[in-house]
Amino acid sequence: MTRPTRPTRPTVAVRRLARALAAITPAIATIHAPASLAQAAAVRDYAIPAGTLSSTLTRFAAEAGVALSVDAALLEGRQSAGLQGRYGLADGFARLLHGSGLGFRIQDGLVLIVHADEAARQGRPAALLPEVQVLDRPDSLGTSVIDRRRLDALTTGNGDITSALRVLPNIQYDINQYEAGRQGEIAPAEVSIHGAKTYDNAFLFDGMSFSNNLDPIQTNPNNAAQPSSSSQGLAIDTSLLCRITVRDANVPAEFGHFSGGVISADTCEPTRSFGGSVSMEIARSDWMRYHLNEAQEQAYAESTSDTSAPEFDKRTYRVALQGRPTENLGLIASYVRKTSEIPLRGYAGGRVSANDDSEKTEERLSENYFLRGFWTLTPTVKADLSVFHAPQRDRHFINNAKNSWFDIEQGGQGVNLGLSHRHDKVLVSHRLTWNEYESSRDAGQNWYGNWRYSAGDKNWGYRSSATAWNSGEGQYGDIEQTQHTASYQIKADWLPLQLANTTHSFQTGLEFTRQERTFHRLEDAMMYLRTASTTTCATAGGGTDAEGCSLSPTWNGWPGQYFDRVTRYSAGEFELDNTMLSLFGQYELEWERLRLRLGARYQKDDLTPESTVSPRTALFWDVFGNDATRVELGANRYYSHNFMSHYTKQHVLALQSSGTRSLSGGVLSEWNYTPATSWRNYRENLDGLKTPYSDEQVVALSQRWLGARWGLKLVKREDHDQVIRRPHPDGGNVFANEGRSAARTAAFTIETERPLRLGPSWNTLSLGIDYTDVQTSHADYEELVTESEEQEPIRYDGSCMAWNERPADNYNRPVTARLNIITELPAQRLTIGNLFRYRDSYRKFVRQGTADCGGMVADNYELTTFRPAVTWDMRINYAIPVASGQEAFVALSIDNVLDRTNEIEDSSSGIVYEKGRQFWVEFGYRF
Predict the structure, then answer these.
(1) Do strands 799-802 and 793-796 pair parallel, antiparallel, or not at all (unpaired)?
(2) Which CATH number does 5-33+140-468+483-524+570-643+689-926 carry?
(3) Alpha-carbon torsion 117, 119, 125, 126, what sign?
(4) DSSP output for 554-605
(5) For the segment 98-157, what is each residue's pLDDT rounded down to a tens digit?
(6) Signal sequence: where (predicted)?
(7) Which of 22, 111, 656, 700 is the most exposed, fewest CB within 10 Å of its CB?
């Protein structure tokens, strides 16, 4: 177990940051949008029925109080679905024009309706999946949106969804994410929301779940029993998206199967008759500074591990197209290929093998094939269909071993079909999805053994000490592990009902999901653990053991050697099915300046012994009735994922057995196998497990002031019935609902409501500061926690407490501040994005003897403090016009511009640091 960190009081740097914020405020105050547009842009309630596009636009402009200019010929024959709900000026026009092939721009206080191509070229040429045109402004501080414009201005590293979330508060990352030696990887980052475990988030892609239940905490590729996995079934590239939405508090009843947060990635309809882009992005170790201590410099030069890789070369290729073959049909298509090569040493200590490659290059590959179509059948009926194929392959080797290459295969494919039809009083939405994800291993051999070095035939190994000179060989065998999911959701949003001065809204829905997990070890696999001396390879059965025996003299004087200890992983296959049913309903009452949302979600599945009901309650108060000051309260319950990983544990362990043999009577005896017994205990208590859940309380305040939206959000989470492992009296372990966690978070945010004009530039600013305090009894559901550990007191930083009350050991940085500034210079076709992050100092404990706690001898833990981390990340986008509506472009991303030396933690080799300055270059062409 890694040692926990503990939130500390704000340091001098935090106080300095507060003073810097005070300095920023006057600058914001000096810049204002034109008064008329500022008033018109306010979020208001609209109830505009479906009709011709001409009539709906005219009515909306009149109610919003803006002047409208449009060529009547553009609107002829076009229909609109109308507008129901709360919208700002830009959001309202975008919604009304959605799917029409038209766009809008604001010029000299006038709203102009133009072709979508022309709207996209305002200030910048149209790009594939361009800046978001349809975006519902979040009505809760528990919801955050990163639109296309913001994504384009971020340095998103590998281009994965979760790496882009670092601009948002309440998102915590692994403290090792930016460690220099891990930068050759391309896998999506793992995140924690409000202290929840990384596997307790729900991931959605265009409304389809891509959460992975294939043992998401198993991240070690060298685990012989199971392939490595992750919490996301797909590695989706952000270039596909028009927005990412994160719901971290006051989450509506529509969303379930999480106790952390909901992360939604969405693509949007094309806005051009035809267009596309092609690009290539490169990042290399030569373009990154390594911050290493003296011991690490030598270790990295001789590294055999991809967690301390001294070199890498990463490349991303993107091709995308969009178009509208007909007025009612839109298509987008994309292909993304990411590769990484990681050169390493094959043998530790810089040794050169006499009969094997001493230098080996691991490889990573991730691909996204994506096609989505949008079809407007009638003005009130719309459909969308997408198909995708997103495989991942990581090629690894076992260090200090010959013939040890193997592939970890992840990712998957699926189909996603949506249909919505609007009636007089209800909008009904359907979504039918099927997907398949895998976490499998493809190995060239089905046995692994560690021989003692012999000059005759086992002569490729290395000598690590005076008593150890070994030659490893082989791999862990093939495993196919898949997750198949078919799901159907129907949702009805009923037309609001007006009664006197109150408005009543209803939403109802149903989800039905069938999930199947398969585990298939294709053939027996052996892991030989120990050798003994022998003068013969003859077996008791009259044959000769040519695989597990050698008569070549070993370096330590044995005449020969044979394996006498083995773990056998037997061939086998099993399936686990689960049927899940969810019902949800939500009611909203609006009365003058108050809005009350009451919801509930019912969930039942085959693997859970009892059904669950999640109440969701939120109260919104528009204090003065002008959307300037809003108060938000909430009390909610969230239930986590199903028990699929827990049920399959017993089946995986049941395939294992241990074997021994000896040299007896001049021959090698037959293997004597003892079946594993610990797996039986896992089954014993599963039927009595409860579904883990989290209770949430929310208090939030938002204020419009000085052209910006200011927010303060306080969230309290109490997690109950979390799953951990307990020792079983008869041996082995059982799963039990005895884990506990608690989190207290606070987030302060400022975000400009519209771009601010400074000379020739337009600027968008967002600032977020959050505080996190997490206590947890365990790191994940596989951690073995004994009751005595929980009950034993410890002395922590001078105070006595129970072991399970200690702060979390990861995903628990106490204070983080981030300032994101996007500057656009349209005349120069230049966009500059800057992200400044300050992560306050944190402390972790180290065991230092014992101390007295209430008359009892307790383990004593002293805290080590690590300095604050400051990073400045920059992205520069520059476009070069080539022809009408076409351009070449280049994007330069710079992580850690100032090349700061940021500490992570200490290890046996000294202080570990984050990466230094790193460059990424992308160049391409848009048409």
Answers:
(1) antiparallel
(2) 2.40.170.20
(3) negative
(4) BTTS-S-EEEEEEEEE--EEEEEEEEEEEEEEEEEEEETTEEEEEEEEEEEE
(5) 777 788 877 655 787 876 555 544 443 333 333 333 334 578 999 999 999 899 999 988
(6) 1-29
(7) 22
